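task queued by scheduler; priority normal; single chain, no ligands, no partner chains; default sampling; output format set to structure tokens
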Amino acid sequence: MSSVPLRLGVLASGSGTNLQSILDACAAKTINAEVALVISNKRTAGALVKASSVGVDSQVISHKAYTTRKSFEEALVQSFRLRNIQLVVLAGFMRLLTSHFLNAFRNRVINIHPSLLPAFPGVNAQQQAFDYGVKFSGCTVHFVDEGMDTGPIIAQAVVPVLDTDDVETLQKRILVEEHKLLPQVIQWIADEQIM
């Protein structure tokens, strides 16, 4: 177990609530990690505001500025390598990554997804679960591979679907568990309990 904090690079496209849970855990020293760089493909992402509010470096690297996926991913790789990133965390990053990026950080890219994978991969997972009528949903942290939410599962948290739920209330309760599970998995990786 290393006393040196694990250097995290976070990819985010949205509001950044999972990023905030990581930042909070780092600040509270409940995880032995530091967010060294946040990259978003969207200039308006709330994650960028959350990063800058605590002095974490952030960048916008828009996929629209590149003619190929490979050139976009190469820009991501170079930014993370410049910061000596040890673990890449997808926290609401809404782009599929190819082998070009994943080979640069082999077995060092994780994602949080709002369903109990392999059920309901892709977008609108909570709506999919609700429409299907499941009695339990939840969230999954998994290693990222070239598929859509198909990488090896690391950990899951289960959330019951209540009779009084609508999609919004289910989303909120799953998000509470996401904010606990993602930092926990990062700590396991920092402790080298997961390789």
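post-processing summary
- The two ends are 12 Å apart (CA to CA).
- The first helix runs from residue 17 to 27.
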